UniProtKB/TrEMBL annotation:
<comment type="similarity">
    <text>Belongs to the MIP/aquaporin (TC 1.A.8) family.</text>
</comment>
<feature type="transmembrane region" description="Helical">
    <location>
        <begin position="155"/>
        <end position="176"/>
    </location>
</feature>
<dbReference type="GO" id="GO:0005886">
    <property type="term" value="C:plasma membrane"/>
</dbReference>
<feature type="transmembrane region" description="Helical">
    <location>
        <begin position="7"/>
        <end position="28"/>
    </location>
</feature>
<keyword id="KW-0812">Transmembrane</keyword>
<feature type="transmembrane region" description="Helical">
    <location>
        <begin position="196"/>
        <end position="217"/>
    </location>
</feature>
<feature type="transmembrane region" description="Helical">
    <location>
        <begin position="78"/>
        <end position="103"/>
    </location>
</feature>
<dbReference type="InterPro" id="IPR000425">
    <property type="entry name" value="MIP"/>
</dbReference>
<dbReference type="InterPro" id="IPR022357">
    <property type="entry name" value="MIP_CS"/>
</dbReference>
<dbReference type="InterPro" id="IPR023271">
    <property type="entry name" value="Aquaporin-like"/>
</dbReference>
<protein>
    <submittedName>
        <fullName>Aquaporin</fullName>
    </submittedName>
</protein>
<keyword id="KW-0472">Membrane</keyword>
<keyword id="KW-1133">Transmembrane helix</keyword>
<dbReference type="GO" id="GO:0015250">
    <property type="term" value="F:water channel activity"/>
</dbReference>
<feature type="transmembrane region" description="Helical">
    <location>
        <begin position="123"/>
        <end position="143"/>
    </location>
</feature>
<keyword id="KW-0813">Transport</keyword>
<feature type="transmembrane region" description="Helical">
    <location>
        <begin position="34"/>
        <end position="57"/>
    </location>
</feature>
Length: 228
C-alpha cells in the first residue's frame, strides 16, 4: 500500500470538505448573501486547489467514486484503492470536526453538519439517479483531464468546474454530493447515516458508467472511420 498517497488523499479531502462545509455554514448565517452559487463556487475551488496540491503524489482523486473507478479501469491496485478510501473518509470526518471547532457545533448542527439532504419531492430511486448522473459527469471529467495519459496539466481546474456545475444543477435536489466522502464525513460526525445508500451507491454507479464510456471511446480502434 502506498501510505504517502493515502495520506495525500486524506489531506486533500480534508481541505476540500473543510471549505465545502464551511461555505454551507456561512450560507446559513443571518444576512448571508453566499447562496447556492457561492456554495457551488466554494466546492469547485476547494476540489480544484486541493486536487492540484496532491496530484503529484496520489493523482488527486479526493473522491471514493473516482478511486473505485480508477480501480475498475485497472489504473489503481485494490490495496491502494482501499488505502485511498480510508484516507478520504478519515479526512472528511476530521474536516467536519475542525469546522465544528472553528464555527461552533451549534452553527454546524443548524445545517445538519453539512450533510447533503434529499429533497422531499424525490424518491430514493430518483435521488440515486441524480447522484449517479452528476457523478458520471464528474468522473468522466477526471478521467479525461487528469488520469488519461494525454490529460492537460490544468486538469484539476476542469474537475473543479465539474463540481461547480453539479452543485448548481443538483444542489436543490440531493445537495449534489457526487462524492461518498463528502457525505460520509458529515454523516458520521453527526450520527445521521440514514441516506448512505443514495450517496454511496449513486456516485459509484455513476463512476462505473463513466469508466465504461471512457474505456470505449479510448479504445485503439475508436477513432477509425467506417468504410465507404
Amino acid at each position: 500500500m502506498n501510505v504517502r498517497a493515502a495520506f495525500a488523499e486524506l489531506v486533500g479531502v480534508f481541505g476540500f470538505v473543510f471549505i465545502g462545509v464551511s461555505s454551507v455554514v456561512v450560507a446559513a448565517m443571518p444576512n448571508s448573501t453566499l447562496g447556492l452559487f457561492g456554495v457551488a463556487v466554494a466546492h469547485g475551488l476547494g476540489i480544484a486547489v486541493m486536487a492540484s496540491a496532491v496530484a503529484p503524489v496520489s493523482g488527486g482523486h479526493l473522491n471514493p467514486a473516482v478511486s473505485i473507478g480508477a480501480w475498475m479501469a485497472n489504473k489503481l491496485s485494490l490495496v491502494d484503492t482501499v488505502g485511498y478510501l480510508v484516507g478520504q473518509v478519515a479526512g472528511a470526518v476530521l474536516a467536519v470536526a475542525t469546522v465544528g471547532y472553528a464555527f461552533g457545533n451549534a452553527a454546524l448542527s443548524d445545517v445538519m453538519f453539512g450533510t447533503p439532504e434529499i429533497a422531499a419531492r424525490l424518491t430514493t430511486t430518483q435521488a440515486v439517479i441524480v447522484e449517479g448522473v452528476l457523478a458520471m459527469f464528474l468522473v468522466l471529467s477526471v478521467f479525461g483531464t487528469c488520469i488519461d495519459s494525454k490529460a492537460p496539466k490544468t486538469g484539476a481546474l476542469f474537475v473543479g468546474l465539474s463540481v461547480l456545475m453539479g452543485v448548481l444543477a443538483g444542489g436543490t435536489l440531493t445537495g449534489a454530493s457526487m462524492n461518498p466522502a463528502r457525505y460520509l464525513g458529515p454523516a458520521i460526525y453527526g450520527g445521521a447515516l440514514g441516506d448512505w445508500v443514495v450517496y454511496v451507491s449513486g456516485p459509484i454507479l455513476g463512476a462505473a458508467v463513466a469508466v465504461a464510456i471512457y474505456l470505449y471511446i479510448r479504445r485503439p480502434d475508436a477513432g477509425e472511420q467506417p468504410a465507404d
